[in-house]
Amino acid sequence: MKKYELMLILNTSISDEDRNTSLEELKKLLTKNEVKIEKEDIWWDRKLAYKINKSDRGFYVLLSLEMNGKLIKELSKSINLDKNILRYMFAKIED
Fold it and tell me: Residue 74: which of 22, 33, 31, 27 has the closest Cα?
């Protein structure tokens, strides 16, 4: 199992309840696929470098994961279905 980071940018125009629901559904998806969430770091609301869907602000969340890299493609398909997630990126952490 390799270490990865997942950076998420969520829509700031949604309610806190909707944002928490999206995060909880994502965490359930990850644990269902045997991904170990080692750390969750919430960066809160920040200004974006460029507008995404006419929004110049985003709610940032960084997840430190331990997982099989072959799952990224499958997980990406599910993450793309969540309209509250503006952008996301998986990054492999070198040992």
Answer: 33
Does residue 48 contact residue 9 with C-beta atoms inside 8 Å? yes
> Cα–Cα distance between 80 and 17 in angstroms, integer?
20
Q: Are 1 and 82 in contact (CB under 8 A)?
A: no
In terms of Cα–Cα distance, which of 36, 29, 32, 33 is closest to 71? 33
pLDDT confidence tier of residue 94, bands split at 50, 70 and 90: confident
pLDDT > 70 in the chain, percent: 100
Please name which of 43, 39, 29 lies closest in space to residue 72, comparing C-alpha atoms.
29
